[in-house]
From TrEMBL, chain A:
GO biological processes: glutathione metabolic process
Domain of life: Bacteria
InterPro entries: Hydantoinase_B (IPR003692), Oxoprolinase-like (IPR045079)
Protein name: Hydantoinase B/oxoprolinase family protein
Domain Hydantoinase B/oxoprolinase: start-end pairs: 9-530
Pfam family name, one: Hydantoinase_B
The organism's taxonomic lineage, starting at the top: Bacteria, Pseudomonadati, Pseudomonadota, Alphaproteobacteria, Acetobacterales
GO cellular component, one term: cytosol
TrEMBL record, chain B:
Pfam families noted in UniProt: Hydant_A_C, Hydant_A_N, Hydantoinase_A
InterPro entries associated with the record: ACX-like_C (IPR049517), ATPase_NBD (IPR043129), Hydant_A_N (IPR008040), Hydantoinase_A (IPR002821), Oxoprolinase-like (IPR045079)
Limits of the Hydantoinase A/oxoprolinase domain: 213-500
UniProt cross-references to SUPFAM superfamilies, sorted A to Z: Actin-like ATPase domain
Signal sequence interval, chain numbering: none
Any one GO MF annotation of this record: 5-oxoprolinase (ATP-hydrolyzing) activity
Name of the protein described by the UniProt record: Hydantoinase/oxoprolinase family protein
Organism: Dankookia rubra
Domain of life: Bacteria
Length: 582, 695
């Protein structure tokens, strides 16, 4: 009996779907609870997934969205490298974006084949950002990199565990190449444990169902995802829609780095063609193919109904054209560690802008791009630390029905990043934080407005390296949509205490004495015409100090009474009408 | 169980739920009576008094008579939770350190379901215009950097007065180190505005983390002015009706406290109700003979999962109630949207789903005939013959099988191309799986093997799922309390008074520590003892338990260990490493360990109602009262199934599956190959839960 000949019972299909989802969630739970480094446990910078024997993701849970689409590349690369000799008890590890299906070097992907009765039935995997992998800067991000060799160790598909036996030599090699071998060892054991338990559960499920039947249901899940997506796409009008976003820096100089997409909607299929995007750039904001696919998947998955299953069947109707040598599909040895944020965000925004033309109601405004970096150095006890200035997170973009989230962080994590408490930072790091408050008049105006940026001031009390990545300074990045306005752009100021201003580069490393870092973060864009915003909502924002009365008047057409405490509805209507007529 | 056998002294548990207010009266010799009265959301006191009157009537007494003979009346109420969920709390002003008034709104950025980015956060309980900064600053070590400015406090108070604020919450940075500025600020406010409600974050939740602390103190201030008057008025009414003892209120920590204590920390009431299940679980531990229990309490809209290991109910330091963070020691209850009212639907891709939407109490399941047309779990149970058509829930509702069948036929069977029975069974299958996954999640998070546990199936709807869930989990046995439908009210009859006090203690573990740690513990214990003494407990009726939250630096979550073996560094390290090994599968040899906080759990011991144990009778296989076609499970399908009337089953009786037992507050299903026994205390044990078979 071939797999496809099995009759699919809809109840069992639902049970299998929930079971594989549950298994991937269990894997995530084990990761979160077992990992050592804050980047796992706090930032959820990892993803767990279950893949079919052919390398298609059939379930994934937890983790940050930008990891969502790229996992299949890693599994398929592993199949290509070791498909013929894969054995029960093997575990594979990889990271290289050019040769091994990786997205960028810090994300290590562990792949564990699942065997049932000697037959390869699928894979349980996780992809997790390591604390440090060597390279030119601590903490995996080297804004001065111009080649991938400056960014850390490259892992091809490694057979790290051979038939149940850990390759000690390889394992030691990995730890030797990290500045934080303790954290790495702890995190790798979390990855081992999580994939092992996942594999046991998948094997048990398949054994219970009989293997052929089980695999037929895996196929059916992918077909189900595909059917859901085709039904969603079919609701959109056919046509070609253009979207563009991008950057104004290659990390070294001001230069236009556009990401351009032509979206073609043809019945129940989508083609995203990135022809015309910028050539690859000197700095580390080049995308790998896996990361570009992932970014497109995030754009598509967030644009449609969130109840869509997140398996790779969903993307069967999606074709991506990413010309080689461009910023969305760079050739070696271009550096690319930053790609999961930039250009991933630019790619998503270009796709969102194109999609919004086909379905304005579902349009998503841009989330402000980040304008903070990280400080690293030794604390007064001589201990090495790496500290992200996450308190300076940017505001989110609006969609129809809700305002943007205030100071929420990167779009590519969609709020999956836990921002730290001030108190936790002051206990753990040699810092004193003076301020973390929302900025007035930064939120992009709209019928639904963007999220505000934040004003964050932090004294770093010791000598540090300040690795700067300020994509969100300069031109506004949280674009408005459907008549909504852009959110304000960000500012980054650095002073050496007692010495005065040290203007930071947009990307680069500053070596600083005790310093004061101030982030005025960028804000999210608005959705829809601001003159359609409920005047009482505008009043509430004025009373809350998110919007000034001048902005209420000019951007929203809302006139307040002289005490500033109520809306003058008659005047407001007149003003809004005359603006509409002019 | 005949009601005329219930003799004083009485212990009473009253639990207000969404639809019914449940009451259980426990008398001498463990005799029990349960009663339900409709809840009265407009004035909850009425439902409580009606429930008491109803129980009294069933006992052939009047209310005054019953209350006069009552030595303990414990009450659980969703009043705090409902105030929060319905947005009907007090107008709160929040004072923060200048420059940090937005922590509450930034809420650490975390979205629960990141993919659902179109749903807003719930609005912060305090709008920004009422979150004001005060000039003051204490640094990370607890030293004053900027003294508290009296003027800035007074200015803020003027704004609050003008804005009609009813309660003020104070949360200053690093107040977990020293509450001095918060207390000084409170003193200034009370001096100029004595009647306003004020609470300080360092008193309510002295933990590191300004977001969690401010969120908690804000909830406290938000619900306080609503909860406290309700509790005081209820206590007054009850004492007017003859109650001679103080009214006790169930807290989120599973223990009770008097009205004065709860009125001061009303945030502790958010789990009042479900947390009382703890008392029931402990009690049943004695009947099952197992100290490893996991309970599922399935009602109309949700399923609560609670786990007890070695006789200790699992606790957590932080709750999330509809997006509001509350950082206080609480019973760890994992809640999922799976209940009798859970709606089944088929999506655009032809996939069957159970939930997350539910039909609630109104219109409720289609079978209720209140206008619901969506198919629910209750409809499926009815179609499958597991529930009988006709009077339900004590006669308050008539179940209409035709309406149930129509809903399932139209919305599930037809779109899926299945028979009515297949579709109904499919919905049940998914809910069983959902409950199973919830239990697995709880046990995995705690690092336990669920096969070692006995599953308690409770709540009105739980005992129809117990057999299947227990089998899928591989539990040793499934236990069903006869009073499954009033599980929490029953638990309230078996509770202790409990006070939890915590204090931050952020230090590396080292040799110099034990003496200072001992002193710190003593101080906290002193506070806890004093709180219990105020509630009338003598020194020898107080049990104290020390806990220490430890972690490796950088970890997000600490592990709380009990300090039974003293405070020596080596003992603490060993306990921590053992717990870490269990939870995470590894520990770090000689790794640096840091402490985050210490906590003291103080219990004022109340004598528990002992189960009325019958002499074990001879094994009897009673005849069923009738038979009807019932769908049992995938392997068995629908068979003519014996139906037993629970009131006729006595200790020692056994029933072979498949069988259905109708009880006053619930219905049980026994699968093929399983056997049900009536325990010495008159409850039900289904064995073996596990059997071989396909998914």
């Amino acid at each position: 009996m071939t797999a496809t000949a099995t009759a699919i019972d809809p109840v069992r299909l639902a049970v299998v779907q929930k079971q594989v989802d549950h298994i991937s969630q269990q894997m995530g739970l084990i990761m979160t609870r077992t990992a050592r480094s804050p980047i796992f446990s706090q930032s959820h910078d990892f993803t767990c997934f279950v893949a079919s024997a052919g390398g298609d993701i059939i379930a994934q849970a937890d983790g940050i969205p930008i990891h969502s689409g790229g996992g299949g590349f890693a599994v398929r690369a592993t199949l290509q490298a070791f498909g013929d000799e894969m054995a029960e008890g093997d575990v594979y590890l990889l990271s290289d974006p050019y040769t091994a299906g990786g997205n960028h070097l810090p994300d290590w992907t562990m792949i564990r084949p699942v065997f049932v009765s000697g037959r390869l039935c699928g894979f349980t995997c996780n992809r997790a950002h390591q604390s440090d992998i060597g390279g030119g800067a601590a903490g995996t991000y080297n804004p001065e990199a111009t080649e991938i060799f400056h960014e850390g160790i490259r892992l091809p598909v490694l057979r790290l565990v051979e038939a149940g036996k850990l390759r000690r030599d390889l394992f030691t090699l990995l730890l030797l190449n990290s500045r934080c071998p303790d954290l790495m060892e702890g995190d790798l054991s979390a990855m081992f444990g999580s994939t092992r338990i996942g594999a046991e559960r998948v094997a048990a499920m398949l054994a219970e169902m009989r293997i052929d039947q089980g695999l037929a249901y895996f196929d059916a899940l992918l077909r189900y995802g595909e059917a859901r997506m085709r039904a969603e796409i079919a609701k959109l009008p056919n046509g070609t829609y253009l979207g563009e976003d991008g950057s104004d820096t290659d990390c070294f100089q001001k230069i236009d780095v556009p990401v351009r997409v032509a979206l073609e909607i043809r019945d129940d299929a989508l083609v995203f063609d990135f022809t015309g995007s910028s050539p690859q750039i000197r700095g580390f904001k080049n995308s790998s193919l896996a990361n570009t696919y992932s970014a497109v998947y995030v754009a598509v998955a967030t644009f449609f109904d969130h109840s869509l299953p997140r398996n790779e069947g969903l993307f069967r109707p999606v074709t991506i054209i990413a010309p080689e040598g461009t910023v969305v599909n760079a050739r070696p040895p271009a550096p690319m560690t930053m790609n999961t944020v930039y250009p991933a965000t630019d790619i998503i925004y270009a796709c969102w802008k194109a999609l919004a033309q086909a379905a304005p109601e579902r349009g998503c405004a841009g989330w402000g791009k980040a304008c903070y970096g990280l400080s690293s150095g030794r604390d007064t006890d001589g201990r090495f630390f790496v500290m992200y200035h996450w308190h300076g997170a940017s505001g989110g973009g609006a969609v129809k029905g809700r305002d943007g989230f205030q100071s929420v962080g990167h779009m590519i994590s969609l709020g999956g990043l836990t921002l730290p408490n001030v108190e936790g930072y002051e206990q753990s790091y040699p810092v004193h934080i003076h301020r973390q408050e929302l900025r007035c008049d930064t939120a992009g105006a709209g019928e639904f407005r963007g999220g505000a940026g934040v004003d964050y001031i932090c004294d770093v009390l010791v000598l540090t390296e300040h690795a700067v990545r300020s994509e969100g300074v300069g031109r506004p990045s949280g674009y408005g949509i459907g008549g909504g306005l852009d959110g304000a752009s960000g500012l980054l100021d650095v002073d050496e205490i007692g010495k005065g201003s040290c203007p930071p580069p947009q990307y680069g490393i500053q070596r600083l004495g005790p310093s004061r870092i101030r982030v005025q973060s960028s804000a999210g864009g608005g959705w829809g015409d601001p003159f359609r915003r409920d005047p009482d909502a505008v009043l509430a924002d004025v009373l809350d100090g998110i919007v000034s009365s001048e902005m209420a008047l000019n951007a929203y057409g809302v006139v307040l009474t002289s005490d500033g405490c109520t809306v003058d509805h008659a005047q407001t209507s007149r003003r809004r009408l005359s603006a509409a007529g002019s | 169980m005949t009601t005329d056998a219930i003799q004083p002294p009485f212990r009473i548990g009253v639990d207000i739920g969404g639809t019914f207010t449940d009451i259980v009266v426990a008398g001498a010799a463990g005799r029990l009576l349960a009663h339900k009265a409709p809840s009265t959301p407009e004035d909850r006191t009425i439902g409580v008094l009606n429930a008491i009157a109803g129980a009294a009537q069933a006992m052939g007494r009047d209310t005054r008579d019953l209350l006069r003979e009552t030595e303990l009346l414990v009450h659980g109420s969703t009043v705090a939770t409902n105030t929060l969920l319905e947005g009907k709390g007090a107008r709160v002003g929040l004072l923060t350190t200048e420059g940090f008034r937005d922590s509450l709104e930034i809420r650490r950025g975390l979205r629960r379901d990141v993919w659902d980015h179109r749903s807003p956060f719930p609005p912060p309980l305090v709008p920004r215009r009422l979150r004001l900064g005060v000039t003051e600053r204490i640094d990370a070590a607890g030293a004053v950097v900027t003294p508290l400015s009296r003027d800035s406090v007074l200015r803020a108070v003027e704004v609050f007065r003008a804005e009609g604020v009813e309660a003020i919450a104070i949360c200053f940075l690093n107040s977990f180190r020293t509450p001095a500025h918060e207390h000084a600020c409170r003193a200034i406010i009370q001096e100029v505005w004595p009647e306003v409600w004020v609470s300080c974050s360092g008193d309510i939740a002295p933990i590191m983390g300004e977001y969690e602390r401010s969120a908690t103190v804000v909830v406290n201030a938000y619900v306080g002015p609503r909860v406290a008057p309700y509790l005081r008025s209820l206590e007054e009414r009850l004492s007017g009706l003859g109650l001679r003892h103080p009214l006790l209120i169930v807290q989120s920590n599973g223990g009770a406290a008097n009205v004065a204590e709860v009125a001061h920390h009303p945030v502790q009431m958010v789990l009042s109700g479900p947390a009382a299940g703890v008392g029931a679980i402990r009690y049943f531990g004695r009947d099952t003979g197992s100290s490893d229990l996991v309970s599922i309490e399935v009602g109309g809209t949700s399923c609560d999962v609670t786990l007890m290991r070695d006789g200790v109910v699992q606790m957590t330091d932080q709750l999330d109630v509809e997006g509001h963070c509350i950082a206080i020691p609480s019973v760890e209850i994992h809640t999922i949207g799976a209940g009798g009212g859970t709606i089944g639907h088929v999506d655009a891709g032809g996939m069957l789903h159970a939930g997350p939407r539910g039909a609630g109490a109104r219109p409720g399941p289609a079978a209720y005939g209140f206008g619901g047309i969506q198919p629910t779990v209750t409809d499926a149970q009815l179609v499958l013959g597991r529930l009988a058509p006709g009077p339900y829930a004590g006669g308050a509702i008539m179940l209409d099988r035709d309406k149930a069948a129509e809903a399932i036929e139209r919305h599930l069977a037809q779109p899926l191309g299945l028979t009515l029975e297949q579709a109904a069974a499919g919905l049940i299958r998914l809910v069983d799986q959902n409950i199973q996954h919830a239990v697995e999640r709880v046990s995995i998070e705690r690092g336990y093997d669920i096969r070692d546990f006995t599953l308690i199936a409770a709540g009105g709807a739980g005992p129809l799922h117990g057999a299947a869930v227990g089998r899928a989990l591989g539990c040793a046995a499934v236990y069903v309390p006869r009073l499954a439908g009033v599980f929490c009210a029953f638990g309230m009859c078996n509770t202790d008074v409990r006070i939890d006090r915590i204090r931050s203690w952020y230090q590396r573990l080292d040799d110099r520590q034990p003496d200072r740690l001992e002193a710190a513990f003593r101080e906290v214990e002193q506070q806890a003892r004093a709180a219990l003494a105020r509630q009338g407990f003598a020194e020898d009726a107080i049990l104290l338990e020390r806990g220490l939250a430890l972690r490796y630096p950088g970890q997000q979550w600490p592990v709380t260990i009990t300090c039974d073996d003293g405070l020596g560094v080596e003992q603490l390290r060993r306990s921590f490493e053992a717990a870490h090994q269990r939870l995470y599968g590894h520990f770090q040899q000689d790794g640096e360990i840091e402490a985050l906080g210490l906590k003291v759990g103080a219990r004022g011991h109340l004598p528990m109602a002992a189960p009325a144990l019958a002499e074990p009778g001879p094994l009897r296989w009673p005849e069923p009262g009738g038979r009807r076609p019932v769908w049992i499970d995938d392997a068995t399908g629908t068979v003519l199934t014996p139906i037993h009337d629970g009131r006729r089953l006595v200790p020692g009786d056994a029933v072979a599956g498949p069988a259905v037992i109708d009880e006053a507050t619930t219905t049980l299903l026994v699968e093929s190959g399983q056997r049900l026994r009536v325990t010495a205390a008159g409850n039900y044990l289904i064995e073996p839960a596990k059997k071989d078979g396909a998914v």
